[in-house]
Amino acid sequence: MAARGARRLLGSLWIALFLGQPDPAAAARSSSQSPAGSTVRTFTPFYFLVEPVDTLSVRGAFVILNCSAYCETSPKIEWKKDGTFLNLVSDDRRQLLPDGSLLINGVVHSKHNKPDEGYYQCVATVESLGTIVSRTAKLTVAGLPRFTSQPESTSVYRGNSVILNCEVNADLVPFVRWEQDRQPFFLDDRIFTLPSGALIISNVTDGDGGLYRCVIESGGSPKYSDEAELKVLPDPEVPLNLVFLRQPSSLTKVTGQSAVFPCVTAGFPTPVIKWMRNEEELTIEDSERFLLLAGGSLEISDITEDDAGTYACIVDNGNETIEAQADLIVQAPPEFLKLPANIYAHESMDIVFECEVTGKPTPTVKWIKNGDMVIPSDYFKIVKEHNLQVLGLVKSDEGFYQCIAENDVGNAQAGAQLIILEHAPATTGPLPSAPRDVVASLVSTRFIKLTWRTPASDPHGDNLTYTVFYTKEGINRERVENTSRPGEMQVTIQNLMPETVYVFRVVAQNKHGPGESSVPLKVATQPEVQLPGPAPNIRAYANSPTSITVTWDTPLSGNGEIQNYKLYYMEKGTDNEQDVDVGGHSYTINGLKKYTEYSFRVVAYNKHGPGVSTQDVVVQTLSDVPSAAPQNLSLEVRNSKSIMIQWQPPPAGTHNGQITGYKIRYRKASRKSEVTESIGGTQLFQLIEGLERGTEYSFRVAALTSNGTGPATDWISAETFESDLDETRVPEVPSSLHVRPLVTSIVVSWTPPENQNIVVRGYAIGYGIGSPHAQTIKVDYKQRYYTIENLDPSSHYVITLKAFNNVGEGIPLYESAVTRPHTVPDPSPMMPPVGVQASILSHDTIRITWADNSLPKNQKITDARYYTVRWKTNIPANTKYKTANTTTLSYLVTSLKPNTLYEFSVMVTKGRRSSTWSMTAHGTTFELVPTSPPKDVTVVSKEGKPRTIIVNWQPPSEANGKITGYIIYYSTDVNAEIHDWVIEPVVGNRLTHQIQELTLDTPYYFKIQARNSKGMGPMSEAVQFRTPKGSAGKGSRPLDIGPDYKPPMSGSNSPHGSPTSHLDSNMLLVIIVSVGVITIVIVVIVAVFCTRRTTSHQKKKRAACKSVNGSHKYKGNSKDVKPPDLWIHHERLELKPIDKSPDPNPIMTDTPIPRNSQDITPVDNSMDSNIHQRRNSYRGHESEDSMSTLAGRRGMRPKMMMPFDSQPPQPVISAHPIHSLDNPHHHFHSGSLASPTRSYHHHQVNPWPIGMSMSNSDRANSTESVRNTPSTDTMPASSSQTGCADHQDPESATASYLANAQEEDSGQSLPTAHVRPSHPLKSFAVPAVPPTGSTYDPALPSTPLLTQQVHSVKTASIGTLGRTRPPMPVVVPSAPDVQETTRMLEDSESNYEPDELTKEMAHLEGLMKDLNAITTA
Fold it and tell me: Binning pLDDT at 50, 70 and 90, where does residue 877 land?
């Protein structure tokens, strides 16, 4: 039923294909539409153009096994030899040619090594398509040239025929030719050679006389046979009797080959020869395939199966008639009568690949899928002897299937492709729901009837068809059964197994496609009943050594019509039972093993299934000649005239029958004529007597069965004695015995007895500790030494030596020896490696290098030593080392943890010698940005202050370095872009932070980022917090985080940047102006006193001014250097010259931002200018005391050093302009920050009454100043205007820097755009940097929040950058303490000349105008 349904589906599919494509060829070429509209994949042509054929080669020649496959996609070709894939990549003799053929260069073939001979198969594979295999081809290599028989001298009467024998192995026949008188002998109508190599000359003439020999030319030097003389005698006077010189012998040939039946006779008068086939005379004259050769032999060319039969040669010379017969058996290689066809199918269907084949003997058939053997099972079955049935298709069944047919004379293959189609997609429209109430209305042993109701979506269901899917429980292969007509709601599933649980489901289908499946229904079939009984009279008999025929009768209790039988058989002693389906009452099984017992049984099938099996019947295949030679052939010379020969039977499984005897062939080594001696029974030895003295003889043995003689052993030789020795008494004592003890062995050597007239068959060696009788070893009589193994060290052994023969053992000779002690000198330890160094390369890699004092000076390793490196983290609790071996003097240790201290040591090993571990080296890996966000982020409201919240968190679990700060992002919109969130910086490792002035009753979302010296880590998940309800405080307003948000202009305690009122700003400006006026007055007074400085100081200042341009290096003590300070001092207020920028919106230069506190490098002025040391950059600013201390300690006014990277710094100078204060909107730029948002950071400080602290953010983003220290490599400027105003203008300052920055590598000091060193003006830009030696307080804010790796030098003067910058807040730093200021005054000792003071006053007047403009605004 399933098969019919499959055929109906395929039939409708192909009808639709051809209807859709009017041209059938076009339909085959293109992708066609299935009935439901799905695209049908076309079959892909994939087949062999050329397949390998059986090949005969000779040793040393090259062989090409041809193979070529066709496919649209070029296939990959591989080769198998004897079923195993060849690895051609590493094979230097065998290689794959471009067309897929296999080339074997220099065929290797010897007695014990035959790597190239065997069966070869070509395998072609196309990815995602499949695999096909070719026929197998046998490569035979001709053996070494040797003659089985050689020509012998003879005489022949003129006109008669003569045969000269030259028999060689069958594989060497093509390489045989003949020579007459050592000249090539050409064949003609009366001269020809037999397939065995023998030469037949008919109608001999006088010119045929001479010396003949045959030659084997199979590569290398030719091999010649013995020469034989042919004498031609005149015609005899009297008649001679007819005799056969060579009779025809039975032949087995393959169709297409040629056969020669020799029929060579001698007699007088010359006879007439005719041939009969099956007792009918052959008409040779009219035939093209039958040819009568000279002398009467018959040649049949291009043999067909009809040529088989019995041929008789009848010879008549008028006086008498003689006759000889021979059979011709014709075999045929497999040939396909019906090839497998390509098949389309859907999943769950059943299909059958048909394959009909013929041949003689009857071929066996096996199936291959994608290059792998198909193993018969419940779902893959061999039906009708050769066909392959696949039940319940699944997608993985798709591919190429090949039918492989083979018999004794050949093999062939044919293939087909199976394509599993996808079900057509449903068209637009309603699909039916699941069928309802699926039940098994009838359950039997072999079938189940299902019924159901229409789906709820289609109550009438007249146009619905149904498909039933079913499978055994636990099996993933579903089979399918369709209803026979639309609207039918029942189906009967046949061919089930009794007492088996099946799972059924039903799917309805309308014109739009299949609908939903019903719920699976489990049903168990009934137990088996009404089955056929056993088939009676089962008989089996052997037809040949490889075939058995089995017959039987119809069962007596058939319980209905018998449908077919299944014949089971297996080899006796194995459990691998095979089966075959049979329609009749007999069957012949071919391809069995020879002379082997098989058991057979038969099971009859009726409509209910398999019946009762018959009893096993055992029969043995017929015997055949042995297929292997006897084993272990040995010779023993008895005396001068006899040799004893012994052997073992052929290996088990190769007897092919009962061994009835053995055939011994022997000959003199110098001659080729043989003597044959046969013995019966199972005797495994024979004494060959009557031989000549002192002569070498060769022997070989073959086994016999009732069918004939098997292959013989190789020739082995022995030489008889020159004279008969005495074996009536035992040998005398050996003439000497010597022993040489070693640690676990003793070497024994001896000489034979002095009396050489007594036969010695061998020697017996006895040995043991204290006694020679513990062990005995016998050796051949030719042997003169022996090594006794496996002894104990330091032990006393007694050794005895006796000669023996067949009479017995002679007198022993004794010797003793003590084995040597087992001492293993301890190897002296090697010197450990020295100079172990750890070089840090990255956050997870350290290179370890060392030296080896045991190597020569060039440290070149020439021996097999190796080094072991071990390492662990430098934690006392960690004692677990990791190790690695290397053969060089360095090793790269990878996969380390960032910012972790490791210790390393090395040892060297050479052979069994090792050193101790070297001294340890330590290294700390570089830091890495945090790879995890801060943990446990919580937000709580501050008690009593509803608009203030406290954010708490824990450090990230993977900090990968020292945490230098955090950034808190918050927003009222969790989905806002990150650059629209408000930013709160937290400097140091604090884990809590307050945020003030939030809007009441508003949900806020918070995220936190950690940072270390390498950058920012990932953000934490957003945490929501809603501020409590309540009335807004005075002066408060909603949070503004829009794009126009500006940082506050004041230093009020408003960390999140809440703006202050306009009134407060005006008041603040009034205060600033007042303070400025007072400070200016103080500065003028101080300046007058400072004009009294000495001339030497003045010269030093001018020299320092020149050093700005890089003319020379500045030297002096700390008091000589007067860099611009970073603070405004009340007692000694000084102002920088102000550059009146023509740009109404002056802009700031890009400022490199230090990565960490170590990167801001103040320079110790007390050190030489060439010494540069890194220092902690600055302290926090929790109190004004600390701030004033920073500015005033030891009279130093350090500026901040800002290298671009924490690694070797690149020379960078930033010029910072002091802007005109005429414009109240001062801009600053944060473009150097690698952040997605502009960051406005303000930290709380305690403001002085007339000053405001500068925030960390303002320093980072706007006007960071740098110390004016010419000896420093990295010197960002503090002003866009050079301090030496009389030497350079702002433009030239920048140009000077650009010119000199390129000379940094040659050691030039970089110029710094700085304030004139003759007087210490105070910078408005940043707060002071701590002096050298100051400690870093991690609890206080330290470094800018965002970092950027800068790879180029940037400078700018005022007005040179065209980008719009955001407004810069005007911030005045708070003044230092009085005592600190006093100390600065004492250290300053500034002297000004009148002209310089006049210039400074002019600058101050300009500043006053700016302040007035601000106040008015």
Answer: confident
Write the pLDDT tens digit of every residue in 1005-1045: 999 999 998 899 999 999 999 999 865 443 334 444 344 44
Backbone angles phi, psi at 339, to 5 degrees: -90, 150
- Answer whether residue 919 shows pLDDT above 90: yes
Q: CA-to-CA distance for 630 and 713, rounded, in angstroms?
A: 6
The answer to whether residue 841 scores a pLDDT higher than 90 is yes
Residue 993 above 90 pLDDT?
Answer: yes
Residue 364: Cβ within 10 Å count? 18
- Provide the pLDDT for residue 598: 93
H or E stretch including 29?
Answer: helix 24-29
Helix segments in 1172-1264, DSSP class H: 1184-1192, 1256-1261
Six token digits for residue 617 = 């019947």
Round to whole Å and give the CA distance between 262 and 1125: 127
Q: Is the pLDDT of residue 391 over 80?
A: yes
Confidence (pLDDT) at 1215: 38
Omega before 222 within 30 of 0, i.e. cis: no
Condensed to tens digits (0 to 9), the pLDDT of residues 196-245 reads: 778 888 888 888 888 888 888 766 677 788 888 888 888 777 777 788 88
Question: Can you tell me the distance from the alpha carbon of 996 to that of 194, in angstroms, rounded to the nearest whole number?
Answer: 118
Whole-number Å distance between alpha carbons of 583 and 956: 81
Which residues 6+ apart lie within 8 Å of 1379 measured at CB? none
- From the list 352, 353, 357, the residue with the least C-alpha distance to 337 is 357
- Contacts of residue 332, Cβ cutoff 8 Å, sequence gap at least 6: 254, 255, 305, 358, 359, 360, 409
What stretches of 552-590 adopt beta strand conformation (E)?
564-571, 578-582, 586-589
Q: Where are the beta strands (DSSP E) in 1112-1158?
A: none
- Can you point out the beta strands (E) in 590-657? 597-606, 609-613, 617-620, 631-637, 643-648
Nearest CA among 376, 607, 610, 348 for reference residue 471: 348
Q: Given this model, what pLDDT does residue 824 score?
A: 66
CA atoms within 13 A on the CB side of 1312: 31
> Which one-letter amino acid corresponds to residue 985?
P
Q: Which two tokens stand for residue 289?
A: 């395939």
Per-residue burial over 1099-1135, b = 16 or more CB atoms within 10 Å of its CB, e = otherwise: ebbbbbbbbbbbeeebbeebebbbbbbbbbbbbbbbb
DSSP class per residue in 841-899: -SSS-EEEEEE-TTS-TT----SS-EEEEEEEES-TT----EEEEESSSEEEE-SPPTT
Q: 761: helix, coil or strand?
A: coil
The DSSP output letter for 623 is: P
